[in-house]
From TrEMBL:
Signal peptide: none
UniProt name for this protein: ARH protein
Matching SMART domains: PTB (SM00462)
Domain annotation PID: ranges: 16-141
Amino acid sequence: ELPESWADMQEPLLEGMCFTLKYLGMTLVEKPKGEDMAAAAIRRIVATARVGARKFQKVILTVSPRGISLQDADTKEMVENISIYRISYCTTDKLQNKVFAYVAQSQDSGALECHAFLSPKKKIAQAVTLTVAQAFQMALDLWEAAHAGK
């Protein structure tokens, strides 16, 4: 449930907003951003996810101005930490509207990866997307504030 004062949520975002999602998978992409690229990547991930009858990993995705961190919901083990500066795009898919995805540059290979997650509701997928957008803005504001005195 998104509060009316969505824009006034600076405080919790600094700490990190948590969402429990199911990790669908990852595919490599050629462009850092774009709706068509993301939609095609999400289609590939969803198609692959449907073929494999495995259970999806439940993760806690935490969004903050530092980036996105992924933690296994069951074991509480850290899966990945993605710096906000490596994320180039995030979206809620138009057709698969419960799917949230982001594109980030791999720390190891430098390749562009699209990661997709299934949320329980369309509203949650949208909330994750809005929260990441807000985290970008806060990271920029913090960066500008840090460099203003120079």
